[in-house]
From TrEMBL:
<protein>
    <recommendedName>
        <fullName>Fungal-type protein kinase domain-containing protein</fullName>
    </recommendedName>
</protein>
<dbReference type="InterPro" id="IPR011009">
    <property type="entry name" value="Kinase-like_dom_sf"/>
</dbReference>
<feature type="domain" description="Fungal-type protein kinase">
    <location>
        <begin position="116"/>
        <end position="575"/>
    </location>
</feature>
<feature type="compositionally biased region" description="Basic and acidic residues">
    <location>
        <begin position="394"/>
        <end position="405"/>
    </location>
</feature>
<feature type="region of interest" description="Disordered">
    <location>
        <begin position="676"/>
        <end position="710"/>
    </location>
</feature>
<dbReference type="Pfam" id="PF17667">
    <property type="entry name" value="Pkinase_fungal"/>
</dbReference>
<feature type="compositionally biased region" description="Polar residues">
    <location>
        <begin position="683"/>
        <end position="694"/>
    </location>
</feature>
<feature type="region of interest" description="Disordered">
    <location>
        <begin position="348"/>
        <end position="415"/>
    </location>
</feature>
<dbReference type="InterPro" id="IPR040976">
    <property type="entry name" value="Pkinase_fungal"/>
</dbReference>
Length: 728
């Protein structure tokens, strides 16, 4: 779970504080003033609320919660409040609350996450172990930032904020039905309401549960009267009951076809990927192996079902694929074939939308500056029995495929919509392949698909080892590589500010994308600025008392086709290091790997003599010669074509060289473990973070070891002009 800790730290070092009333109006079931007044009157008459009219308070809550000798008394007052409201309610759903920080709710993947308390659906239980995480609708954490001498302890306050964010993250990540989740923190008498959907994580301003007791009542009454959908569950996704609490959850998932409006149910059989859930915000992509459901049973061929939250103004993937097939029919084979697709509807409200349906079209007023919180997940929360799926494959020995960079804490202005698409083909991602011929066959196909996108005027922006697949032969099509995950794609000439953080996977990210700057253009201009001719011109201007020409500002950074091609180049280099011959020393290969992929500077130095780098430089020289100077860099079509041809030739050479190989290859992590070398982090390449720079780890799994029958010597140029030899 260290990966998840790093992800939370990187993505959300800050959360946005918002107005309580605005948050409740937007995300909670609406409670009329008349209904709330009626509930208050009944609670008072039944003795749940006591005191003078102007100073009414909860009978079950100590007057000064921080002074309570028994912390359990403070924690469990919520149970009495919920019971009191439930006794007055005729709601169909049964909402209960349980304060049991000593045991853990049931979950198939995590045996250690243990909130102080939680609101849940179902019958009253006495132990958290009798409640499933799938039924928890609002995890709750308590804290006490004041010691007996009333000295403020910032660490304690941060701790229970961290815990509730972890619990909310856990709910969203492990339950495919969740569209949003609520949270509650209580610090002595001060409480906050929390909310998380695929766009934002926010917390309300503090409110006093003693003085502002009606605010807490409003939250409880809203929960008691909510429907499944209003509690954040997707009515189009049904969790199948299982007698085995350890079993992977299965769902019946409905797709409403975007063209025919016909609905079809598909059953998830195996979770192939959920890397999109590693962050509390973002696309939230999940991918399953699935079958069509007829008369309650799955039938027919296996397919791939993808569930994602895309930006509202993005081109739906099925339309994107249709355009490519129409404009580049000879390269259509390098993409997956869509079978069924559509946005997920919610009643008559149209597609499920973070702003229009989840928040009822209401804005959430902020309270000023974001509140700075360094997210630290306590050790007691960090264990997990099951690893995540990274890419469409196994959970181990692959890089962190999460986007790099932390997010702007301002509330998102760009809504996301819930979208599903079913594909015909099942493939193996590059990182699961163990033969170099298969690796480069897959990458060649992905490269052709990438070029088709460029010819259609798009950039992919997220090439990695998990979204280029090797697809088996079918029909008239032979074995081939395909590229997927088109939700990050943008028009090449789109000059709008990007919605997200830097897009891509660090090891495969183009160096300029990592720097978020056109560093090559900056270098070219610096060389020109320091040339003898430029120096003489500046000296002459000074002697003539003229103002020297001002340096031109760098254009705003935008992703261009050469960046996509550079990602393919990095993928090839990475795979040459990633696979090592079984049974042979891998110490030198590990050393070279670390020199290349240490950080963005080492990658830049490694790339500086490549042919692709020269293509970048030529394109940027042409850009600077434009009059008037363009605001963004445009790589002309001829440069893109020439770069594509260079890459095609490069891949051809690699494929031909790989045909002479035989023997068994294993991951570098396995090879170094057998070799006894210092262990390479199994989630290589090391993932940088802007806030911590820490590296996650994954557990190792066994892989067959055998000696190779032939050797391949791969020469790669390393920084400092040294040449290193990797035997494979």
């Amino acid at each position: 779970m260290a990966d998840f800790q790093t992800t939370l730290t990187t993505d959300l070092p800050k959360f946005r504080e918002v107005e309580l009333q605005g948050l409740m109006d937007a995300v909670l079931y609406p409670v009329s003033p008349h209904r709330l007044a009626r509930v208050c009157k009944k609670l008072a008459s039944n003795g749940y609320i006591k005191g003078p009219v102007q100073k009414l308070r909860w009978r079950c809550l100590p007057k000064h919660p921080s002074a309570a000798q028994n912390k359990a008394q403070v924690e469990r007052f919520l149970e009495d409040v919920v019971d009191a409201v439930a006794n007055l309610s005729t709601a169909k759903l049964h909402i209960n609350v349980l304060a049991d920080g000593s045991s853990t709710p049931t979950d198939s993947r995590d045996k250690n996450s243990r909130p102080d308390a939680f609101f849940y659906l179902g019958k009253r239980q006495s132990s958290a172990r009798d409640v499933r995480w799938a039924d928890i609708v609002m995890p709750t954490e308590f804290g006490n930032s004041y010691a007996a001498e009333k000295e403020y302890n910032m660490e304690n306050e941060t701790d229970h904020y961290d815990k509730v964010m972890w619990s909310m993250y856990h709910v969203m990540r492990n339950d495919a039905r969740r569209r949003f989740v609520l949270g509650l923190t209580c610090e002595d008498a001060k409480a906050r309401l929390w909310y998380n959907d695929r766009c934002d994580v926010v917390a309300s301003k503090e409110f006093d549960i003693v003085k502002d007791w009606k605010q807490l009542l409003r939250i409880v009454v809203s929960l008691q009267h909510s429907t499944w959908s209003e509690l954040g569950y997707d009515p189009n996704t049904v969790l199948l009951r299982s007698d085995d609490p350890e079993a992977e959850p299965q769902y019946d998932i409905t797709i409403c076809n975007a063209e025919t409006r016909q609905t079809t149910v598909y059953r998830s059989l195996e979770l192939l990927s959920d890397i999109g859930m590693d962050s509390m915000v973002g696309h939230g992509t999940r991918i399953w192996r699935a079958q069509k459901v007829v008369a309650g049973s799955p039938i027919g061929p296996y397919c791939v079902l993808k569930d994602v939250w895309t930006h509202e103004n993005c081109v739906p993937e099925h339309i994107f694929l249709s355009e490519i097939r129409e404009r580049q029919p000879e390269r259509a084979r390098y993409f997956l074939m869509p079978l069924d697709y559509g946005f997920v509807p919610i009643g008559n409200s149209g597609p499920d939308n973070t702003h229009k349906t989840l928040r009822r079209g209401k804005s959430i007023p902020t309270s000023g500056s974001p509140v700075l919180r360094t997210i630290h997940i306590p050790d007691g929360k960090s264990g997990s029995q099951n690893s995540r799926r990274n890419g469409i494959g196994r959970p181990d020995d692959v890089p962190d495929l999460h986007q790099e960079g932390n997010r702007n804490p301002a509330l998102s202005k760009h809504p996301r919509q819930h979208y599903r698409i079913m594909f015909e083909e099942l493939g193996e991602p590059v990182h699961k392949l163990r033969k170099f011929t298969d690796v480069f066959t897959a990458i060649q196909g992905g490269y052709e698909g990438l070029y088709a996108m460029h010819l259609c005027g798009y950039v992919h922006r997220n090439v990695n080892c998990g979204n280029i697949l090797l697809v088996p032969a079918s029909g008239e099509l032979g074995q081939r590589g395909v590229i997927m995950d088109l939700e990050y794609a943008k028009k090449i000439d789109d000059t709008r500010e990007p919605h997200d953080v830097k897009t891509g996977t660090e090891a495969f990210m183009a160096t300029e994308v990592q720097f978020a700057k056109h560093i090559r253009l900056d270098t070219l201009r610096a060389v020109k600025h320091n040339s003898a001719k430029a120096v003489r011109a500046r000296l002459k201007s000074c002697l003539e008392s003229k103002e020297p020409p001002r340096a031109k500002p760098l254009p705003a950074f935008r992703h261009n086709p050469l960046h996509d091609m550079e990602s393919i180049w990095w993928l090839c280099i990475w795979m040459l290091f990633y696979l090592a011959p079984a049974g042979h020393p891998a110490r030198e290969q590990l050393h070279n790997y670390n020199k290349v992929f240490r950080d963005q500077d080492s990658k830049r130095d490694f790339l500086h003599t490549s042919a692709l780098n020269r293509r970048f430089n030529l394109s940027y020289v042409l850009h600077d010669a434009e009059q008037p100077l363009l605001e963004t860099i445009r790589v002309n079509d001829k440069q893109v074509e020439w770069s594509y041809e260079d890459g095609k030739q490069f891949l051809g050479l690699l494929t031909k060289a790989s045909e002479s190989l035989s023997g068994t290859f294993v991951t570098l992590a396995k090879a170094t473990a057998v070799d006894g070398s210092a262990k390479i982090p199994s989630d290589q390449p090391t993932r940088e973070t802007q806030s911590t720079g820490k590296t996650g780890k994954r557990k190792q799994t066994k892989e067959p070891v055998a000696g190779p029958s032939r050797k391949l010597e791969v020469y790669v140029e390393l920084p400092l002009r040294k040449r290193a030899r990797t035997k494979a």
